[in-house]
């Protein structure tokens, strides 16, 4: 990850939610016929001047987000639009205010976009978006556009490695494109064989593979590394190269701050709901998830009792998507 792609380091500390005004902003993902996405640069005299963002503006009292987006893009860019599907809603804390960034796809647009308020514009290929320094609230939008919306955590194989391999293949066939290899209770030889299977299948499917907790294996095999929450305190620098995906498990604000400082590319946060492995233990709930989401710009997967049916509600609370074992493990 390049320095310009990293989330800004000066995020606000945890603040009391009371007394901070909430600003509701609607933003649009505008795509041209070549698949490029339009960004606008914040002008001098504004907060976070010089950073690039998805164009849009404030939702006025009594106005719907759809109407606000259409109005703002006409005023700012001189185009008329058809508002498309919701992408993600990002709650973000800034000094003295709280932002709700409501991001929609623009299904169609008419006219020629121009910076009518003096802002620079750039049409950017999707794979180049991370090179543009952005406000904290816009960084998760890039993740929602480019990264998978589900993150499979593999279960232990029990006594049947062949069945585990078959179910792993079925998960990839069902569309899983990001996997954390985590198996417990097996000896080193079985673990190597299972990892070799997962590695080969992910390469063939074009899926991202991360290994749980083993930095040496990640470096040796060229896969990503997923750190356990306790490991976040064991490193004072990024334990893998910048071009190797780094993720972490987080459970609270301190974990999130450590993950961001370490340069993680994304995290999982939870448990959000009660899980089968911990019956009777309530999760943090969506309200607390969104509150923690406000204080980091990292893409976040919600974990804990999650499945594909929860992706939409996760996105409404600022999540990249969902992470799960049982909820995403294909059954044959």
TrEMBL record:
Residue span of region Disordered: 1-20
Record-given protein name: 8-oxo-dGTP diphosphatase
Enzyme Commission code(s) on record: 3.6.1.55
Record has Hydrolase as a keyword: yes
GO aspect biological process, one term: thiamine biosynthetic process
Molecular function GO terms recorded: 8-oxo-7,8-dihydrodeoxyguanosine triphosphate pyrophosphatase activity; 8-oxo-7,8-dihydroguanosine triphosphate pyrophosphatase activity; 8-oxo-dGDP phosphatase activity; 8-oxo-GDP phosphatase activity; metal ion binding
EC primary class: hydrolase
Residues the record lists as binding Mg(2+): 56, 76
Pfam families: NUDIX_4, TMP-TENI
Record keywords: DNA damage, DNA repair, DNA replication, Hydrolase, Magnesium, Metal-binding, Mutator protein
Similarity remark: Belongs to the Nudix hydrolase family.
CDD domains attached to this UniProt entry: NUDIX_MutT_NudA_like (cd03425), TMP_TenI (cd00564)
Compositionally biased intervals (Pro residues): 1-12
Superkingdom, taxonomy of origin: Bacteria
UniProt cofactor(s): Mg(2+)
Organism expressing this protein natively: Luteimonas aestuarii
Domain Nudix hydrolase: residue ranges: 20-147
């Amino acid at each position: 990850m390049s320095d310009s792609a990293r989330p800004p380091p000066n995020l606000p500390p945890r603040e009391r939610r009371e007394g901070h005004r909430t600003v509701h902003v609607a933003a649009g993902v505008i795509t041209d016929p070549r698949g490029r996405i339009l960004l606008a640069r914040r002008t001098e005299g504004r907060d976070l001047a010089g950073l690039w963002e998805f164009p849009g503006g404030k939702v006025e009292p009594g106005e719907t987000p759809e109407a606000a987006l259409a109005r703002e893009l006409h005023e700012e860019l001189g185009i008329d639009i058809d508002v498309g599907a919701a992408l993600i809603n990002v709650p973000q804390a800034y000094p003295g205010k709280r932002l709700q960034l409501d991001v929609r796809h623009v299904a169609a647009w008419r006219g020629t976009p121009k910076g009518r308020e003096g802002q620079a514009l750039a049409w950017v290929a999707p794979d180049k978006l991370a090179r543009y320094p952005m406000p904290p609230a816009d960084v998760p939008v890039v993740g929602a556009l480019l990264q998978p919306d589900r993150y499979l955590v593999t279960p232990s194989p029990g006594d049947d490695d062949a069945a585990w391999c078959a179910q792993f293949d079925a998960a990839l066939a069902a569309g899983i494109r990001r996997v954390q290899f985590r198996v417990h209770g097996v000896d080193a030889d079985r673990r190597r064989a299972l990892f070799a299977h997962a590695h080969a299948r992910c390469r063939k499917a074009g899926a991202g593979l991360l290994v749980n907790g083993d930095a040496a294996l990640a470096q040796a095999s060229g896969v990503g590394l997923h750190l356990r929450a306790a490991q976040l305190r064991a490193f004072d620098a990024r334990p893998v190269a910048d071009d190797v995906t780094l993720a972490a498990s987080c459970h609270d604000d301190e974990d999130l701050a450590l993950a961001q400082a370490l340069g993680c590319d994304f995290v999982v946060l939870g448990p959000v709901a009660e899980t089968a492995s911990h019956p009777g233990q309530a999760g943090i709930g969506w309200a607390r998830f969104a509150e923690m989401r406000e204080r980091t710009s990292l893409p976040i997967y919600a974990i804990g009792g999650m499945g594909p049916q929860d992706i939409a509600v996760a996105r409404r609370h600022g999540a990249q998507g969902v992470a799960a074992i049982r909820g995403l493990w294909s059954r044959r």
